[in-house]
Design goal:
Helix content is 33%, strand content 14%. The protein has 386 residues and is of the alpha/beta class.
């Protein structure tokens, strides 16, 4: 039931009614907050005066969609108090400062929990809140380097391939932060006690490699690149160049898929090479030669409707137009920006891109009203100029 203490806030999805404060940053913190917003939470981003995240027009920063924004100068005399007003009414707070910075600014866990003992305080860093490197600067590529995961990716005769910032920042960072704060929220609602969630990219990325470590211990994985079943070492699990300089991806691991794959390539005689490592070089060369004989689109047509586990490697601009992704609505257009739709999907509480990227400070009055926070004299909405 909505009361004066729990005013209506926007949002649709399974997290509708959950309030989140995001202290503005870049990378995994904003992405985690976007995911919470996509799921229906009312996410209020606390932007710093004049501070931009990505070096792009904020109107295109999709990680700020489905959020609202207020601007607070945490170094101003009343800055911390304004954030604590929000924290008092929030379920979750997300920050991505170096260890100790939030405390120095007066908005650390101790100050927030003094105002709201039920608050889940999510901390997003690369190295974690403690350890020899905790206070060192860093970025995705350094974090995944130390965990052993970067060293797994790429050809053996080339430097490790950098997987953009998807593996560390977003998979090992953002997703683990979201899992952590939602688990802690479940505990807080059951017990009335909040807690701090220390989401370190090094921890999450290492955790992603759990299966690989099991295989390594069992002798089923070699500790070097392109020498294993899933890292490009296997000739029927990897990518091949086509006649037009594009690529096809192959994942024909199981015997029945492998046999169908070879049949469609016209290489049935290579069926016995599947488990014969001494023939993998021959298998790779002949498969590569076949793929180079036709274009990517021609091979796509050959494998269409089959269980050979082969797919074209598409670019970012091509992907939204693939028939399967288009049919599912995997991508959506909002405000003139093509972007991934919220995921995953829910049968009873569907999600959507409700609003475009929040403009810094544009929602100050609405947030003060909805969260029952006293408006201040200088709280004027940001408006455009001619």
């Amino acid at each position: 039931m909505t009361t004066a203490q729990t005013p209506t806030t926007p949002g649709s999805g399974p997290l509708s009614g959950v309030r989140v404060v995001e202290l503005a940053g870049i990378g995994p913190g904003p992405f985690a907050a976007m995911l919470l917003a996509d799921l229906g939470a009312d996410v209020v981003r606390v932007d710093r005066p004049g501070g931009a995240g990505l070096a792009i027009d904020p109107a295109y920063d999709v990680t700020n969609r489905n959020k609202r924004s207020v601007v607070v100068d945490l170094k101003a005399p009343d800055g911390p108090a304004r954030v604590l007003d929000l924290a008092e009414r929030a379920d979750i707070l997300v920050e991505g400062y170096r260890p100790g910075v939030a405390e120095r600014l007066g908005v650390g866990p101790e100050e927030c929990h003094a105002r709201n003992p039920r608050l889940v305080y999510g901390r997003m860093t690369g190295w974690g809140q403690e350890g020899p490197l905790a206070h060192r600067a860093g970025h995705d590529v350094a974090y995944i380097a130390l965990t052993g995961t970067l060293g797994m990716i790429g050809r053996p005769d080339e430097p490790p391939a950098v997987p953009a910032n998807l593996l560390g920042d977003y998979a090992g960072g953002s997703l683990y932060l979201v899992v952590g704060v939602l688990a802690a929220l479940h505990h807080a609602r059951a017990t009335g006690t909040g807690q701090v969630v220390d989401a370190a990219i090094v921890d999450g990325t290492a955790h992603l490699s759990a299966m690989i470590h099991g295989m390594l211990a069992a002798g089923g994985w070699q500790d070097r690149r392109s020498a294993n079943l899933l890292d490009g070492g296997c000739p029927y699990y990897g990518t091949y160049e086509t006649a037009d300089g594009k690529y096809m991806a192959v994942g024909a691991l199981e015997s029945r898929f492998y046999e169908e794959f070879l049949h469609l390539l016209g290489l049935d005689d290579l069926a016995p090479a599947r488990k014969d490592w001494t023939r993998w070089g021959e298998l790779r060369e002949r498969v590569a030669a076949r793929f180079r004989s036709r274009t990517r689109d021609e091979w796509t047509a050959v494998f269409e409707g089959t269980d050979a586990c082969v797919a074209p490697v598409l670019s970012l601009r091509e992907a939204p137009h693939h028939p399967h992704l288009a049919a599912r609505g995997t991508f959506t257009d909002h405000g003139g920006i093509t972007q991934p739709a919220p995921a995953p999907r829910f049968s009873a509480t569907p999600t959507a891109v409700r609003t475009g990227p929040a403009r810094p400070g544009a929602d100050t009055e609405a947030v003060a009203r909805d969260w029952a926070i006293p408006a201040r004299a200088d709280d004027a909405p940001v408006t455009g100029s001619d």
